[in-house]
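Budget justification, computational time. The allocation requested in the original proposal was used primarily to generate structure tokens for proteins on the priority list. As evidence of use, we reproduce two of the resulting records. The first is shown immediately below.
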Amino acid sequence: MDFFNELLVPGSIIVAQILAVVVPVLISVAFLVYAERKVLALIQLRRGPNIVGPFGILQSFADALKLLTKENIIPSGSNKIVFIIAPIITMVLSLAGWAVIPFAPGWVVSDINVGIMYLFAVSSLGVYGVIMAGWASNSQYPFLGALRSAAQMVSYEVSIGLVIITVLLCVGSLNLSKIVLAQQTVWFAIPLLPMFVIFFISALAETNRLPFDLPEDESTLVAGFFTEYSSASFVLFFLGEYASMILMSSMTVILFLGGWLPPFDIYPLNAIPGVIWFTVKVIFILFLFIWVRGTLPRYRYDQLMRLGWKVFLPFSLFWVVVTSGFLVYFDLLPN
């Protein structure tokens, strides 16, 4: 019994840590949807949600309850097993990346030394859920949306990988906490500003957000890869997409905006807890996500591919060479 008790205690701590991350993320998704609808309403001179709850703040929960109580329809011609598994994979992968995100010093579920590689690998796997959903639906529009998503993610993951290499050259470590601590003097968004811009735009493409939401193009593909989905399955896709948005925003904050570090190391600012700084920065990046959606039109698919392969890829390669040459010439390479 002592042996099992020794196993249970660490296991209970891990489960508590996971819940302490997953539950706030899921609640954040609900408020992100509300914030998006409110910001878009302000951009378009509308009111937005204002009925359910004070200032309409409970509208997202009402929508979730409505969707969950609807019938879950599975097309007769679909591959039923793959059709059901696809949204689950998308949701699980969007939550798995949070295991290595440091919210503050010591506030991380698993502080592994290859955290950035784990995060990059998990975010890359997200396309499998989309491909499975498009293929299993046995419908033309979802399949076309899945093909678009696969090509789009492969194209922009190359640029994201080169951006991450640039940051790693400056840090000398794959640990996310060390990447944050390396920005105590200056945030990487300043010396690596072009890489910061490329990473943010690539994050829009990776999460299928406007102006790069070609896999969900309503004007040509009805709803894209989740056209045939309803009820709880649709909710899982929806949660996965918005959880991925928050995850990519967190990656942007960690890589370029100093993570939990304040902008200046002076008393009124450094007295504020690091987790609050981290949250404020993530909210700012999410606001940019919404702002872009409210102001820019959707790209054509050829424009999307040209931007990824003919602009971002060569420029990212050039900046990696420039950064490495600068670090070697001035003997600034980290030990």
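The second record produced under the same allocation is shown here.
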Amino acid sequence: MKGWMFGIFLAAPALPMNLSAQNDSLLLQGLKTDVFYLASDSLGGRAPGTEGAEKAARWIGTRFESLGLKPFLENTWIQPFTYSEEGRPVQAENLLAQTNPDKPCKLLITAHYDHLGLGNAHSREVFKNVIHNGADDNASGVAMLLALAEQYAKKEKELDYSVLFVCFSGHESGMFGSEYFVQHCGNKLDQAKYVLNLDMVGRLDDAQSPPPLYFRLPEGSLWENDLLPVDVDGLKVVVKNQEMPLDHTPFHKKGMLAATFSTGLHDDYHRSTDDAERINFTGMAQVFFLLKSTSEHSSSDVS
């Protein structure tokens, strides 16, 4: 049964020992709860336009509300859109939430929440009619986004800017969600400086020492060298200067500094075996503390 910013990048310990064991336990439990639910058989692989995708969207919206975040579009978390796939219309929706709605948005943290359902042309399975739960791709990214959202929600009164959290749908078929968001909300992002996209952050490879964390930059990015993430205790940051079809691309085309964090590809990528039981949750905690630390140190640059 399958289970249910930037600024100067400073070094951070892998698992800070000054945090209580209780806080570490709560972080791990939160990551596990979100990943196991989003990657559960009951959601059927979260293909856009399906009941499973709607359940995932409701889960994310409920989590946004429980964290005390505010809607970005009037009084709703939902940004509906339609795209065409194999000649048929697909109804999908992005989920948007923010801190400090009365202040300018200067930082975005994003992740896609859709996956392949029972398999489609992008599946690597020989026989497609099997649930592709997408635990790493990309329940892990959504869980990480929610963990970071919780941290920002707790300190929003200290910030003079808004942080926007966006969960995209329509990614696997061609980045339709991120393209739609940038096309229809781009006029609200004039003061946004950085986009941190999270895509497959749940399979840190402990067989390598130190395990790599990939920072994917689009070709032609104007990131300055002193703004790039650096190696930290327990993690090796590998900068990849290459364009890939990822959700940072529409933001880069708009002229924003956008990049994607990932723990990399693996044999379960786009297969039915990408299940929650295979996620490296301790590794996710390491990545979380790096992202949390670098985001906090970005305050002087996004203010």
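A brief technical remark on that second record: Helices lie at 21-38, 51-66, 135-154, 176-185, 249-253, 281-296, 299-302.
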